[in-house]
Amino acid sequence: MKRVRTGILISGRGTNMSALIDAAKRSDFPAEIVVVISNIAEAGGLARAAEAGIPTLTLSHRDFSTREAFEAAMDRALRAARVELVCLAGFMRVLTPGFIAQWKGRLLNIHPSLLPAFRGLHTHEQALAAGAKHHGCTVHHVVPELDAGPVIAQASVPVLAGDTPDSLAARVLAEEVKLYPVALANIAKSLRPL
Ligand code: GAR
After folding, report:
1. Inter-residue contact 122 to 131 (CB < 8 Å)
2. Cα 57 → chain centroid
3. Domain residues for 144?
4. Does 64 score more than 90 pLDDT?
5. Among 82, 106, 113, 187, fewest CB within 10 Å belongs to which?
6. What pTM value is reported for the model?
7. Quick check: is 111 catalytic?
8. Which of these, 132, 140, 120, lies nearest to 156 by C-alpha position?
């Protein structure tokens, strides 16, 4: 089986990234993780990826004078690794329409809410403030409008009495790490080679 060469972009601790790496350890998983790129040098996920034997790279957005120059460097690194599919996993930079167009249909994100509810940041605070009874996570295609791309898969959790943003985040994250590998596998299976 030809596996889809997949790159992961992170900014933080990399829980979702680790879930994708673990799933892709199986030789029958339709994607293989070939590079992890972080825009934050101190991101905990970099060490976790390196431990798993995945090549890593830091490209700090602060080292580039424009968003476009930063993204061009990411694009070059992804192409150099012959990446065919990109997964955002806690990558906290907004991408320009130009970069998104380059990776049309090949750029996935996981977002910690049941989109279209609660786009943007602080989704668990937003869900609690809105009195939501259900919350969850969404894997979606990335389009220029933030957190608005076609939904690939969702998982929901109950909001419980006494929940705090942290308790809710933990319940959602437990679903994220199950959902993202399934969604990646489904997309990878249907992708034609680059
Ligand atoms: C995850 O909850 C992910 O859904 C969220 O950041 C967290 C990253 O954690 N992503 C976003 O909010 C994207 N806008 P992780 O690095 O431990 O996977």
Report:
1. no
2. 16
3. 4-110+138-152+180-190
4. yes
5. 82
6. 0.98
7. yes
8. 132
